[in-house]
Amino acid sequence: MEIVEGIGIGIAVILGAILFLFIRRALVTRSGGIIRLSVRTSTMLDGRGWSPGFGRFVGDELRWYRMFSFAVRPKRVLSREGLNVERRRLPEGQERMSMPADWIILRCTSRHAPVEIAMARSTVTGFLSWLEAAPPGAVSPRVASQDWPAA
To answer: What pTM did the predictor assign?
Structure first.
């Protein structure tokens, strides 16, 4: 009987964890403005270290939440004020297997450290619009003037 109780408790814990993940996602996404976004958390190996998640625009911040995390707070916060796009590129090598084909990788510099983020080509347009947003008449030097990578 102890084995059955142990299995029952294990199943209850797993179901509780899954339920918590769904509740967490519902709390984060309740007011919209969510994009699919991967962030490179480690550069130890070429093409590796990408972590899937979703981003949420809140005022002058892009808050990134890991897809498979129990944390209610964002794992990373990128402030528009100190963020510059340094380079754009298509996924290379191993990266092509870990993300969809139509995604673009942006290498950004921030006040703290360089960061690489990946998102769909259509999402990049919205991200760059958000990044360049400034009062009328102001010029934004945040986005490097480069052509889009060849598809």
So the answer is: 0.69
| Distance in angstroms between the alpha carbons of the first and the last residue of the chain | 60
Please report, for the chain, the start and end positions of each structural domain, with discontinuous segments joined by +: 33-132
Q: What is the DSSP letter of 17?
A: H
pLDDT digits (tens, 9 = 90+) for 20-59: 777 766 766 666 678 889 998 876 666 667 888 889 888 8
Percent of the chain with pLDDT over 90: 17
- What separation in angstroms does the CA of 63 have from each of 17, 58, 73, 117, 134? 23, 7, 9, 12, 20
Tell me the fold of 33-132: PH-domain like (2.30.29)
What number is the average pLDDT over the span 48-77? 83
Q: Which of 104, 111, 94 is nearest to 36 (CA)?
A: 104
The β-bridge partners of 56 are 34, 63
- Characterise 49 by phi-psi region: left (phi > 0), alpha (psi -120 to 50), beta (else): left
